[in-house]
Structure of tRNA (cytidine/uridine-2'-O-)-methyltransferase TrmJ:
Amino acid sequence: MLQNIRVVLVNTSHPGNIGGAARAMKNMGLTKLVLVDPMDFPSPEARARASGADDILDGAQVVATLEEALVGCSLVVGTSARDRRIPWPLLDPRECGRTSVEQVQVGGEVALVFGREYAGLTNEELQRCQYHVHIPSNPEFSSLNLAAAVQVLVYEVRMAWLEQEGLPSKVEKVEATAMLNTQPATVDELERYYEHLESTLVEIGFLDPEKPRHLMSRLRRLYGRSNISKLEMNILRGILTETQKAVRGETGKRSDT
Amino acid sequence: MLQNIRVVLVNTSHPGNIGGAARAMKNMGLTKLVLVDPMDFPSPEARARASGADDILDGAQVVATLEEALVGCSLVVGTSARDRRIPWPLLDPRECGRTSVEQVQVGGEVALVFGREYAGLTNEELQRCQYHVHIPSNPEFSSLNLAAAVQVLVYEVRMAWLEQEGLPSKVEKVEATAMLNTQPATVDELERYYEHLESTLVEIGFLDPEKPRHLMSRLRRLYGRSNISKLEMNILRGILTETQKAVRGETGKRSDT
């Protein structure tokens, strides 16, 4: 599906940026790169910065005009650094990602269009876009590197795609044993821990049962918000047991954890 | 506020990436760059890629160890490409942005830590981080360019910051004492706590220094995700001190908490 979202770079000066854009695209699962009248392409510098995304560079389509680059697209979004005189429907990068993914879901093709390093897109080019997208930035230093701008927009495309596919945006591969280890402790286990903790604190002389102050409630608050797992509970209980033994002068047992 | 979120680059090989990171930071309104043992810095290549973010490069702090880079931080997030043996609390970039902004809102400082271009962060370095963040990517081509990864995370920081600024100001007036109590502990305070905890566990016979297993890393993981406040840190340290005194047969001092 992501192959139906193309990245269009207009009149790029630095081949390194083409390579950086190709790498960012491949990282995020996009494949189709279209270059409108690039200044220097193909180039070893592009290849170096692509850092293995050679297939994207080799498959890049080089065309003479923006019009050709947009053939077949049903949605065109142009990157815009500044406010323009004519108000235009504007997206932020997140909305751009979602709108793009929705568009390919209904069978459309999408172009994300990036302008020149120093001058961006012309007004005429921007008028060929249904939407403009602006990457929020420091007003006093607002111009992103071209490959960095591509990275942000294709990242948002991937986030939207993962969201739509119902895929997690992070994959925690946890082994079966690790699963057991991360199984949360129950509240009654926690209560038994607090009892054990309290008696140990009395035993070591840290807690005065006559003047308990807020100590236990503070410790409850700390451990209560920590999502203690069963494994961690065992460790914490083990520490208390060994503390008591050591204080009583009994032989300490080594941890087997 | 964003000045309290620092970008830490560990052992960077290519100065161009340092420049690219500086530019991305300045674009997104971040200012503090810390370089741990960079291979080539300062460098004209960094300056060229920074493209005007010279102030970020000039102000960059160069340190020898990750530990120094994290002084004063209450939240440390490390970028991680792969699954690790020990499961660790994982954020996606969006969650990372929100968590970072929340942390500086309560007066904390945040470090976003990026590893080497080819090898990332070591397991030891990753264990100094409370959270790992993974930028979702094409499983077959998953390694982002360093500056591109910085761009994605600082972009999400800016998005979260804008989101937060758009909301009605929350509870800004907090009493001085409450502030002190909820003020987060810094990572260097946490490190001192882990050292104290480790030596105490050895002393009570729970931890065998010859066979430490995963005990300390599990305890780091537990306390690392718990957002310990300075007050809580004092309580936990006090418990250790009293445990040691009690084990050594010294008189226990009552808690004054």
Remarks:
- Chain B has two domains: 2-166, 176-247.
